[in-house]
């Protein structure tokens, strides 16, 4: 089994645990923004797509990479915008007594 | 800069991104710090992209910039959709995320073949299968939520067996490729079969199960990204994927618990096919219906009101009228709270966002457990577009398909009012004995119009 794999597995398991402990604390009120935010963060896959598209190793890689850049970057942009919009809607009771 | 130094710099920037991503989710724990969390996530994303552009052996920028421009142009409108369209937007973004992961996995295969190690082949095959099925599965989910596809479960005899056979075929091809990479046509065949499996996985799932399915697809999208991190040996992808995967998984577990069902039951149970015949026997029973004036009189006399919203409120876009009702009643000293069931709506947290959009303070939006304790002291439970989540059969009728599901105990309130279009059972097709109780008043009509009329009755200038 390659050494890289073992390191990756450690990171994955530890990352999963951090995710678990952080996310169980997210208020139920915010589960929809949670989904759009994790989705935006997950769009960091755009860096891999950029590398595939930009290294120009094969023509296929450039085509697939470019589609990947577009798809994942739209997730990053759209995900952050909609999360901010939704969070802006949540107001506490006091600020609302106008 | 020396390429090795450059690589180190990029690695440290990725590490900073990872830290910012974790903080981002940590700050999402409460509405007060949540916006700071989004900011942290945005910064983490921006530095990761810039570091990659600056130092990752990229030789050609044209197509990257084209991709970024297209992504930005598509992303902005997707970020500005109405809150009622958020479930389908979310499903679509899972599709995009999984598509990216699958496409990169495919490119990696064709760049490396025929020199992919056996171990590397396992990683690529798993990643492409999960990415592929999440892509098409999420597209189908988005189509159902947008009502391009029928929301009812679409099933046929022996479906589960056929679906499992298809999945097994994809895995079998993956295993064969491990040993015989030179059979090149096998790889595209595996991709196509996993795409097909995604369609077959989500087609049979009904609208009421969408909250669980979206959460599960979220988890798969994260998993696909993490696996891609294994393939490319990219730590930032592994962590982001693990966070996203964990998040989706936790949400899916919460949704399943809130319906007292298991994953396998959601995925293979095809909710809604169960009781199609049972609706006919009950039409003899009588219900009491009431006019907006009656409803207004009852609300005026109450001192505490719990409003239970459901998907019907979203469909009727009634949340702003509900807010007007909330304002008028609160002004008269009536205590109004909202009881939000975890699976109300079409995705986790759906109702909270709609009500927050309508400017209802979030401290009035209560969980099922919080609201159930107060229910016996509540004068009026007003149900708007919800059905199964307050069906007392879940507590009392062991033959009901939703028996054992935790519900909002509206039947314990002194008076129950249900705003509903007609007596038709909900998506799940399950009869609701709540409608036939003596203390229940049915308010037939479109939620937005009906609540609007109640508000007019109560409002200043009416005969109060």
As a whole number of angstroms, the C-alpha radius of gyration of chain A is 19 Å
Helix content of chain A: over 70%
Instruction: Specify the overall morphology of chain A.
Output: flat
Q: Average the pLDDT over all residues of chain B and give the rounded result.
A: 89
Indicate the low-confidence ranges of chain B by residue numbers: 271-283
Q: How many H/I helices of chain A? A: 4
Q: How far apart lie the N and C ends of chain B?
A: 79 Å
Helix content of chain B: 55-70%
Strand order of the largest sheet of chain B: 3-2-1-4-5-6
Low-confidence stretches of chain A: none
The largest pleated sheet of chain A is described as:
none
Q: What structural class do helix, strand and pairing data of chain B support?
A: alpha/beta
Distance between the termini of chain A: 64 Å
Short description:
The complex is a heterodimer of chains A (98) and B (464). Chain A is an all-alpha fold.
